[in-house]
UniProtKB/TrEMBL annotation:
InterPro entries: Integrase_cat-core, Retrovirus_Pol_polyprotein, RNaseH-like_sf, RNaseH_sf
GO terms for biological process, alphabetical: DNA integration
Protein name per UniProt: Integrase catalytic domain-containing protein
Location of the Integrase catalytic domain: 25-96
Entry superkingdom: Eukaryota
GO MF annotations in UniProt: nucleic acid binding
Length: 96
């Protein structure tokens, strides 16, 4: 019915967002972490969040290139340990 409604067709929004994937909650800190990037006040940042404690580690990076990101992430892992699982949104910076 909606497909045949001209008003609905005119204002139809594209594909609905994909549902979030459920994650198991870790039983201790730094087992599962999430990683993402953001841009603020003219600077790029890499952010790593621990799923267990919600602890956030943020580091300024000069670009989103792998040659810059990898040492920054290694530095974070050197301080807290290497997690068993690293979750990302699969955005463009993670494709290289």
């Amino acid at each position: 019915m909606i497909e045949k409604c001209p008003v609905c067709a005119k204002f139809q929004i594209g594909e609905a967002p994909k549902p979030e994937m459920p994650h198991e909650f870790p039983t201790s800190p730094w087992v599962k972490v999430a990683i993402d990037f953001f841009y603020f006040n003219g600077k790029n940042y890499v952010e790593v969040v621990d799923y267990y404690s919600k602890f956030i580690e943020v580091q300024i990076i000069s670009s989103l290139e792998a040659t810059v990101v990898i040492p920054a992430v290694k530095s974070i892992f050197a301080r807290h340990g290497i997690p068993l699982e690293l979750i990302s949104d699969g955005g463009p910076p993670f494709n290289s």
